[in-house]
Amino acid sequence: MLKLLFASSLIFSSCSVLSNNLTTEELRIEAATHAMPQVLMAFADEVNQFEQQWKSLNNFRHATDLIADYSSQLWLNAKQRITTTKNYDDRELYWARLLSSKIIRSVKPKFTLSVAEQNNLLTQLEKGSRGHNDLSFTKSSTKKIILTGFDPFLLDKNINQSNPSGVAALLLDGQVINYQGISAEINTVMVPVRYADFDQGIIEALLAPYYALNNVDMIVTVSMGRKDFDLERFPGKRRSVTAPDNANIIFGGTQTAPLLPSLNNQPLPGNEFVQFSLPVANMQQAQGPYKVIDNHKITTLEKTYEPATLAELKNSIAVNGSGGGYLSNEISYRSIRLRNQLNSTIPTGHIHTPRIQQFEPKTEAKIVKQITAMLEHSLNAL
Q: Which helix (DSSP H) or strand (DSSP E) does residue 176 occupy?
C-alpha cells in the first residue's frame, strides 16, 4: 500500500506545473492512474530516480548522458519484466515513457533548457525507450528479422487498452527462433500511434539502412486488427479513417475523400497500392487458434473488392488498403514503398493480429505464440 501511495504521489507530482505544455498523451496520466494504478506503478522506482537525477542536472551534456542511459535501460527493463512476470502487459512501458517525458517537459533542472534542447532530449527518450538503441544482431543465427509493434491506441475509448503487437515486440526482441535447422535472431522496435511522427519520416529513417544494405532477411510490421490474423497483401497509400491518433489528431481523410500522408513536408511519393513479399504460404502453415488469412480486400474510389494481382490496381485511387486506412496500413505501405525504391530484396509485409478488448493476457499469449510460429515457418523460405 505504501508503494502504491508513493507511486500515485510521483505520478501527480508535476502534473500541475506547466500543465499547458503537456501533450495529449501525457494529460491522460491522471485518468490512467485512477483506472489502473498498478500499471502506472510498475516502473515507479525507476521514474522517481530519474526525476531526482533530472532535477540535479547542471548542463545539457549531462542531460544527454542521463536520457541516453535511462531510456535504453527502460526498454531493457520492460523486456525483462514482461518476460519474467509473463504478464503480457505492454502498457507498463507505454505509461512509464509518458511519466518520463512529462518530467522533461514540466520539471526544471538546475540549468536553463532551451526548446531545441528539450526537443532533442524528448527524441532521445522516445528512441531509447522504443528499442532503437538496442537494434543490433549479436546472436549466432543464420537469419535476421526486424519486427515492429505499436503502442496501445484509442485510449479515450478504453484507457486501459493493450496492444498485442506491442506485447510481441517486447517478448520477441533479441530472441532466436529455430525451424528445420534454420535459426533467426529477431530485433524489434515499438512505434508510436501518431500521424506527425509518420509524416516526419520515422519509418523511413528506421528501415532505410536495412533496405539500402540488404542486410536482414525479413521485415515484418505488426498491429492489432480484426477477428483473425491477416497478412495484408495490398497496402494502400492514403488515409481514410476518422479515428484519432494518440495525440487526438483526426487527419481528415474519409471513405469518399481519402488524403495523402506526407514525408518530410512533401506529399508521400509512390503508387496508390503496393504488394507485400512475405512468404505467405509458409506462414499460413503455422498452427494456432486463429486463421492466417492472405487478405486481398481493398477499397478504391470506385469499389470494394479482392484483386488477384497488383496490376489490377494500376489506375485506381486508394481508399483502403488491405490493411485499412489508418497507421497500421500506412506502416506497411511506407516500408514496402521504401523497399521498392531502394531495390531491396528483403521480404516485407504486415501482420494484423486478432483484436482484443482492453487487456486480455491469456489471449495475447496465444497471439504471440502464433506470431512466433508464423515467423518460424517462414525461415525456410527466406
A: strand 176-179
C-alpha dist (Å) from residue 30 to 34, 163, 328: 7, 20, 28
Residue 238: partners with Cβ closer than 8 Å, 6 or more residues away = 253, 258, 259, 260, 261, 272, 317, 318, 319, 325
pLDDT tens digits, 207-238: 999 999 999 999 999 999 999 999 999 999 99
pLDDT tens digit sequence for 351-365? 999 999 999 999 999
Structural domain 139-381, CATH architecture: 3-Layer(aba) Sandwich (3.40)
Residue matched to cell numbers 493493450: 162
| Cβ within 8 Å of residue 326, ≥6 positions away | 239, 241, 243
All structural domains of the chain with their residue ranges: 2-133, 139-381
CB-based contacts of 339: which residues, under 8 Å, 6+ apart? Answer: 207, 211, 219, 277, 346, 348
- Please count the other Cβ atoms lying within 10 Å of the Cβ belonging to residue 39: 21
**Which 3 state secondary structure label does DSSP give 287?**
coil
Pairing of strands 182-191, 143-150: parallel
Reported as a single tens digit per residue, the pLDDT across 246-274 is 999 999 999 999 999 999 999 999 999 99
Residue 123: CA count within 13 A, CB half-sphere: 9
121 φ/ψ angles, rounded to the nearest 5 degrees: -70, -40
Coil/strand/helix, residue 193: coil
